[in-house]
């Protein structure tokens, strides 16, 4: 596939490298000027693209940016992107880092991002730590393979995302619709707990709406 990745930080760069190694054609962008971006892209086995070009002529787009940076993206970025292009979002909201966003008391994080992008999307790669994503992938069928959850409203897109995840070395669990995606947000039992498929399925079911933000903030206080 041709995949555009927006953000080459911890998560975006690992995804670019792994998916390029899996045979995909990867374009990346970040906030840097072109000469520096070109060096980063080359290191990842990708090509450099401007923010305007990264979403053009691709089969899938992965947004992997700080939560509060999405509002800085060009407003019409996805306007001409066909509806069959799969859009993925890896983001998580941390108020200490991203500032308080009152709306998120009622709205799941990726529903909020979907509103900013004006586009349906699939929430994925958010409930796996950078270290886990980089080092703990295993071949399909291997014992103890870690699973990550996929939430979204388009079943066809979720199937494609599951294949992409598999190529990075992880199993997947269907986390339900995007409105159910609070079950995989920071502070939930499913968040970065390195569970296998059966355990993650249970963890998503065990999540209690409204409890996660307090747990998330407690963990950050302790860290
Ligand atoms: N780190 C983890 O373990 C982890 C795990 C799962 C999910 N997540 C979530 O995934 C997202 C990305 O995390 P990360 O740790 O990879 O973040 P990061 O290391 O801070 O990288 C963020 C990337 O976004 C780019 N960026 C910021 N604003 C941009 C803009 N307006 N246009 C284009 N690119 C822009 C940055 O560009 P520059 O390089 O030019 O600064 C950087 O490459 C976050 O929402 C995070 O919460 C993180």
User: Poorly predicted ranges (pLDDT <50, ≥5 residues)?
Assistant: none
Q: Structural class, from secondary structure content?
A: alpha/beta
Mean pLDDT across the residues is 97
User: Helical segment tally?
Assistant: 9
SSE order in H/E notation? EHEHEHEEHHEHEHEHH
**Shape call:** globular
CATH homologous superfamily? Answer: NAD(P)-binding Rossmann-like Domain
Helix content: 25-40%
**Number of domain modules:** 1
Count of β-strands: 8
Rg, Å, rounded: 17 Å
Distance between the termini: 39 Å
Bound molecules: NADP nicotinamide-adenine-dinucleotide phosphate
Q: Major sheet: size, sense and barrel closure?
A: 6 strands, parallel
CATH architecture: 3-Layer(aba) Sandwich
Strand content: 5-15%
In short:
This protein is an alpha/beta fold and 223 residues long. The protein is 36% helix and 13% strand.
How would you sum up this structure, described in words?
- The chain is of the alpha/beta class and 223 residues long.
- It has 9 helices and 8 strands.
- It has a 6-stranded parallel beta sheet, covered by helices on one side.
- NADP nicotinamide-adenine-dinucleotide phosphate (NAP) is lined by residues 6-12, 29-32, 51, 64-67, 69, 72-73, 90-92, 126, 128-130.
Question: Could you give the topology of this structure?
Answer:
Layout: E1 2-6, H1 10-21, E2 25-29, H2 34-44, E3 47-48, H3 51-54, E4 60-63, E5 86-89, H4 95-98, H5 109-117, E6 122-123, H6 130-135, E7 147-150, H7 155-167, E8 171-174, H8 197-206, H9 212-222
Parallel strand pairs: 1-2, 1-4, 2-3, 4-5, 5-6, 7-8
The site of NADP nicotinamide-adenine-dinucleotide phosphate has 26 residues, from helix 1.
């Amino acid at each position: 596939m041709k995949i555009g990745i927006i953000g080459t930080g911890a998560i975006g760069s690992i995804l670019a490298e792994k998916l390029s190694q899996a045979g995909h054609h990867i374009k990346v962008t970040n906030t840097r000027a072109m000469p520096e971006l070109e060096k980063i892209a080359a290191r990842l086995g990708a090509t450099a693209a401007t923010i305007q070009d990264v979403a053009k002529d691709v089969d899938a787009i992965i947004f992997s940016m700080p939560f509060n940076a999405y509002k800085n993206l060009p407003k019409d970025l996805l306007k001409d992107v066909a509806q069959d292009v799969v859009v993925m979002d890896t983001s998580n909201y941390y108020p200490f880092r991203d500032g308080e966003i009152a709306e998120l008391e009622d709205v799941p994080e990726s529903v909020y991002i979907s509103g900013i992008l004006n586009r349906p999307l699939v929430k994925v790669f958010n409930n796996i730590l950078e270290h886990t994503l980089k080092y703990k992938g295993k071949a399909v069928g291997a014992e103890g393979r870690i699973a990550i959850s996929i939430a979204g409203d388009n079943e066809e897109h979720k199937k494609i995302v599951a294949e992409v995840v598999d190529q990075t070395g992880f199993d997947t669990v269907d986390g339900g619709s995007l409105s159910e995606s609070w079950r995989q947000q920071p502070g939930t039992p499913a968040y970065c707990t390195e569970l296998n498929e059966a355990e993650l399925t249970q963890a998503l079911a065990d999540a209690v709406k409204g409890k996660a933000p307090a747990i998330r903030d407690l963990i950050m206080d302790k860290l």
